[in-house]
Structure formats: structure tokens, C-alpha cells
Amino acid sequence: MAPSRLLLLASQLLLLLGFSQPYFLTNCSLSHGSSPVWAVAVDCGGRQLLSVPADLPPGTTSLFFSYNRLQAVSRLDFRSMRRLRRLVLSYNRIARVEQGSFLHQGALETLDLSYNLLCNLTENMFQGLSNLTRLDLSSNQIRVLHPIVFRLLTSVHTVLLESNLLRRVEDVQPLLLLPNIHSLKLASNLFTSFQSSDLPLTQSSALETLDLSSCRLLESFGITTPVFPCLRCLDLSMSGVQSGLRWDVTNRTFLRSVSQLSFNEPLLPLDNVLHVLQSLDSLAEVQLNYVEDWIRGGLLDTLCLIPTLRTLVLVYNHLGRSTLGLARCSQLSILDLSWTYLRTLPEGSVRSMKRLKVLRLQTNFLTEVPKDVGRLVSLRTLDLNDNLISELRCGDFGDAAGLTDLDLGTNRIAKLDGCAFQNLTRLRTLDLSHNLLWTYGGTFRTGLQSLERLDLSRGFLFILHNGDFQGLRSLRYLDVSSDHIGRVQQKAFGGLKDLETLTVSIPLDYECNFRGLRRLRNLTVYLSTDRGQTRPPRASPQALYELRSLKTFTVVCRGFHFGIPLEPPEELLQTMPGLEAFAAINAFTSAPRPDTFRYLPRLQNLTLGKTDLSDLEPELFHFVPDLQTLDLSETSLRSLDFLSGADLFRLRSLSLRDNRLVTVNHTVLRSLPALVQLDLTGNPFACDCSNAAFIEWAKTNNQTQVVNAHEYGCAFPPSRHGARLMDFDTQSCFLDLGLVCFASSGALVVLTLLASFVHHFLRWQMLYAYRLFLAFLYDRRRKRAGPERYDAFVSYNVHDEDWVYRHLLPELEGRQGWRLCLHHRDFQPGRPILENITDAIYSSRKTLCVVSRRYLQSEWCSREVQMASFRLFDEQKDVLVLLFLEDIPSRYLSPYHRMRRLVKRRTYLSWTQAASHPGLFWDNVRRALETGDGPGQDAALLTGVPDPRQGPE
């Protein structure tokens, strides 16, 4: 497998491990850097947080936690962030760091604990920081350093302990012994002495930079042992007591490597400073700020005698009209006289500096280019920015033909003469921005053949003429943007065949074109018009011909406009097939046509701002399959429906700031599978259930970071105005009223259908079941009440009543003496029929059914049989006696399934077969009534079995 594929797989694995939790951060914002995995920055600054949020991504590589109220660092605060490389905890109230708090931060390279309340550094405070390179502990209240607190910081090269309360130089000894220590800053501490004899070092230190500035109690500085053989930079600015700083360097070789010395605003007498300078043999750079008294006392005379001196920085000194002896510093290569209140540089001040390469005169009161400049043959960089120069003369740069960088920005230059830069054949960078230029005077038509970068922005030029820049054959960057350009002629940029970046302001109805700019990669056009313009633009697509190499195109329209300057706009973009980034700010009057970007298949970044896109259609994005960044801020969008069907499968960043989005349909965002950053800042959200799904999605999705979601405010309803969108309680919203109504109505429909079915087909069965239940309860009550009142309940049809009265009653009640229950005689008047039937069956030992064809057709007789059957099968009691008055064939019994089932399973008595022997029939009835309740006690009772071919089976 190729190494690149292995790296890709490793990156994806790290991504899965590091970002498996949601991206939504309650009090922080997250951004991705250019690197795929290791550049994930989280910003929690300025939130007034009292603790480190628990929802920070474990894959965080940079955490900014400044300007909060954190009081202590806990072992659990950063335990999960094992890939953290930069941690900034400045400007908090941290007074304590628990032991082992950074035990899992083995990848940390920068730790900033400045501007806190730390008082002492404990033994294992920095345990685990084996890769730390920069440690900032400045501006605390540190008094005590544990002797071995720094022992594990083997990779650290810079330690800042400025503005603390350290008093003993011995405390910093462990730092000096670190193998890779390069820079140690101890400014603004309480040292009274810094003596190498107080540092019992067993070996030489690798320290290169030592800062002891602003130590106002420092009385002496002494290096009497060779402990700093590598020391190059020493800063003693604003250090020393009022009586002076005692300098004790007995052997110049002890500081033989010191090449840079800073004495800014010192509190030392001049004699002490001169003694210091005489003790250093290899000085190459000296910085002396706020020392005009020393300069007047002859300091420069001594400095200029140092043969190794190459850089002299005298900024923030009030030199006025005099440089007081600079002419002797002929060996200088760099001279910085910025912010020195110079009104003129006296002739001869720098003329002798034949090696001078860099001269900085920024922010002074110079009204002309100093005469000495034209005589500095070796000069390469000249900075005259922010002065009062109003005119450039032909001989200003005289013999300075080697000049490569010239900054004349922010002056008062109104015009240029053609000879102004005629000798600067090697000039590569020229800045004339923020001047009063209204004419170039042919300056750029000839000469300056090496110029690569030209900044003419913020001038007062009204017309760009044909050929104004034709002599700049090597130019790669040109900025002629201005609020005052009124006309750009067609061939204004002719001859700039190597130009790569162009920023220009042109009127909306411009006539120029960019023919010939075949290498142009970045074009920014500021279109301007006035409100009185009444005619549409008249430019044609030919104005942008031959821009096939263009990668970035930005159009910004200022003021009233008729739309993008070329109509239709797709003709403008047709000339840029390789375009990768397009931005149009206030350039469209409405949403672009769906085929606007049909000629831009490589477009990756698209910005449409300050335009009404309320009628935007998804088809607009069908021609840009590689789009990765889309910015539609300030475009009056009211919904995200345009994303549905937009085919933006590779889109990674979407910005919809300052629109009119009230609700966000998060399901639309699912059409963007690669989206990792979404910015909806400044929209008037509704804090109600319409956004509930989006809120939950923003909090739980593990791919897309909703930028600053915790700061989104509520605009609706008025009662929640000013509240936070993410604070809205969504739990009550997920009770779907529509679903509840659907389920309720569905259940009602089903219940209605079931009730109709039961009423039509099973109403008697249901009523019977109800009565059975009552019978069950009644039977239980009967068991408690005592034995049955009747020997038998006679169930018969009213049409068979004559037989019952003529034959059954006289025999069973009259001759045999049984107590019978008959409905016409023994039922209680006024009670429901079923209650009387139930009471009669459960008050009798037996139920005697007189079966005939009419009996089978009677509903009430059927209920009586059912109730007796329940007692038979449920209680396992032999309570049924069947007397058939007629022979009933099986085909007539088939519709009466319950009776047919009983006939198949039980014996019965037939009156028709016993007609010739009635005595035997009634004797069998007696025997049946005498039979006990056991289920098998009637097995021997077999009377009158009908012929199966004609009677019941």
C-alpha cells in the first residue's frame, strides 16, 4: 500500500477516534485549520466560564480559554484531549494547578498560563509535558519555584516568567540546566542581584536570550564564570536602581557571544552604559529607545566605534532636526529611525554608510526624500511610510539603483513625474497607497522593469489611461482600487503579460477590457456608480476575454446598480473556465439564473452577498459539483429549501449569516453529506417547536459544527425575545399532536367498526358473557348462602307449554315429588329476564331442557342452554338433562352448533321413542334427576337413543 494511502487511512482513523462525539459546543466555537486532522481549534475565550466545558472534542489540537473565571486546573479538565498542542489559559483567576493536571498532554507544545494568580510552582505541576517547547507564566504572583518543577520539560526552549515576584536568582537555576533552553524572560521581577556566582551550575547553560528588563530593584549584574557561552541577546531595558546598575563582567570572554543588546528607557547613568558597551566585543545589534539624553551626551560616538555593530535601532527617541553623530557609524547595515520626530535628515547624516541596506524612517515629519538617500549605493530597503512628503523629484533616488523595496505609503504625494523612479531598475516592491495621486505622469510607461508589486490604492486618480502600466513587464501584483476613479480606458492594463493579481475600481459602465492578461489568477473589481445613473451598463463580454487562467474573481458593487455589469452574467463567466473562487457582493439585483455557473465546473468557493436571493433555485448549483464553500450572507433568505436537490455533495462550509431564517428544516441539511461547518449567526429564529428538530440535530450530530450556535438569539415569539435558541426546551415538542390525533381517530374508527360488528353479530354473545360473569358472581354468593332451592329448572318453549302442564308437571311434581322451577310461575316480576334465568339455573341442581324445533329457534331458550352449558363445563357439574319431544334429524341441528355439540357429547331422553312405555321414560327422568353432580355419574343412564339416520347423532 502506498504511503499516501496509509497516511489517509491513519488520518481517517484519527478523525473517527477524535470526533465521535457531537460538534455542538455549549460555550465555545470550533474551527478547522488547513490540515485535515491536527488543526482543530476551539475558542472559549471571553465567556466568563467558571470551569472547562465537558463537551470539548477529544480531538482538539488548540484551545483558547482566555478571559474567563477559571480558578483552578483539575486533573480531569483536559484528560480526554490527548492531541492538544496549544493551550492558552491566560487572563483567568487560576491560583492552583493540581498535580498531574497535564499528565495526558504529551503532545502539548505551547502552554500559556499568563495573567493569573499562581503563587508557587509545585513539584509535579508540569508532569507529562515532555514535548512542551514554550511555557508562559508571566504576570502571575509567583514567589516560589520548586527545585525540580521543571525537570521533565526536556524539550522546552522558551520560558516566560515576566512580571512575577521572584527575588532569588537561584530559583531559576533548574531552567538554566534544561538541555534545550534558548530563551528565558525574567523581566519585571524583584531581583536585587543577578550574579553567576549565585548559580551553582555544574555545567554550562545553552541559554541564548536573557531578558532582565524592568527589574527596578536590580543593583548589580555580574558574570564572573563562563556559564553562558551561547548567550546572544541580553535585554536590560528599564532595569537598575536610581543610583545605577553595577556591571561586573571581569572577563570579556564570558560574554563573547552576545551580539544583541537592548537598553530601552534605562535608569542607568551614561557612564555605566559606556562601561557595558566596552565589555562586549561582538555587539552586532543595539536597540536604544527613549535615550535622547544619552545621545546628546555622546553615546553615538562610542557606539559607532564598535567595529562589529551592524544594526542600530533608535526608535521612540526625540531627535528633532539632529542625528547627533550618526555619520561616524559607517559600518551599519540596518538603521531604524522610526518615530523619532525627524523633520529632516541633515545632509551627511547617513552618506558615509556605504554598507547600509535597510533604512527605516517611518512615522516622522519628513516633507521630502532625504538627500543622502540618493547616495546610498548599497541601500535595498527604504521605508518612508507615514510622513509628509508631497513631491518626488527626479534625483531623489540618484545612485540608489540597488533599491528593491520602497514604501512611500500614507504621504501627501499628488503627482508623479516620469523620471521619479528612472534609476530604480532593480525595484521589486513599490507602495504609493493612501496618497493624493491624481496623475502618474508616464512614470510606469518606461523603467521599473523589475517591479513585481505595485500598490496605488486609495488615491485620487480619476482616469486610468491606455498604456499607463505598459513598462511594468515583470509586474505580478497591482492594486489601483479607489473611490474616485471615474473612467478606465480599454487598454489601461496593456502590456502586463505577467500580472497575476489585479485589484481595480471601475465605473459600472466601464469600457476597459483585460485582453492580454493571460496569466491573471486573481481579479477583484470594485464597481461604482451614482444614484443619478439611469441607463444600464453598456459593456460587452469582450471586456473580460482571455481570462482563462483566472482562479479567483471578486465583484463588489458600490451604490445603486442595475445588476452584474455584463448581461447576461453567464457570458461574463464563460471566459473563466478555470475559475475556482467567485464572489459577488451587491452585484445581482435578484437570484442568478439557473445556468449562470454552467461554464464553471471547477468552482470550489462561491460567495453571493448583499443580494436578494429569496427566489433562489437549487438548479443554480447543478453545474458546480466540486463546490466546497458557499457563503450566502445578507441575501434575504427565508428558508433552506433551495438546498434540497442542489446536489452539493462536497460542500464543507455553508455561511448564511444575517438572513431572515425563522425556522430551519434540518432534514434539508442531510442533502449535504460532507458539511462540517454551518454558520447561521444573525438570523431571527423562532424559539418554538418549529425549530425543535434543528436544535436537537445541532446538539447531537457528530459531523457538522454549527458555529456559535449557543449565541443564537430568539426573535419570536415576543415573550422569548432575547433568549437563547439552544436553551429552548424541546422535550414537549416531540409529542406529535398530529400522530396523537391520527391514532385517536383511527382507534375511534376501529372501535366503531368493532362495536357495529359486535352489535350485529355478537350482541347476544356479549350480553350472555356479561350475564355469565354475573352468574359466576351469583354462584359464588350462592355457595356462601347455602344449597339450591329447586331440584330442576325446566327450560321450554312457550309452544310446548301444553305438554309441560299435561305430562311433565303432574308426573314430576305430582307423582315423584320434585320441586321444579318454571319461568311463568317462579320468575320474579320486574327483574330482567336474564337475571331471572341466571337465578333459576344457579338455584336448581339440574336444568331440564324440553327440546323441540321451536325450542331451537327461540333466542331465550338458546340463552338458557348456553348458561347451563357454562355451568356444566366451567364447574364440571352434571346439571343438564335433555328431553327431546320430537325426532330432529342432524341436518336440522347443524345451524344450532351449541345444541349439536351437546347432543354429541351427552346422553338424552326421547319422548317419541318412549310413547309406548311412558312409565320407563318417567323412571329414566327420575334417575337423571337423582344423579349426583359428578361428571361421570350418568355413564350408565342410556335411554332412547334415536336412529342416527333420522334423529340427532
Automatic annotation (TrEMBL):
Gene Ontology BP annotations: inflammatory response; innate immune response; toll-like receptor signaling pathway
Pfam families recorded: LRR_8, TIR
Molecular function via GO: signaling receptor activity
Record InterPro entries: Cys-rich_flank_reg_C, Leu-rich_rpt, Leu-rich_rpt_typical-subtyp, LRR_dom_sf, TIR_dom, Toll_tir_struct_dom_sf
Keywords of this entry: Glycoprotein, Immunity, Inflammatory response, Innate immunity, Leucine-rich repeat, Membrane, Receptor, Repeat, Signal, Transmembrane, Transmembrane helix
The species this protein was found in: Salarias fasciatus
Top-level taxonomic group: Eukaryota
Membrane topology: Single-pass type I membrane protein
Family: Belongs to the Toll-like receptor family.
Protein name as catalogued: Toll-like receptor 13
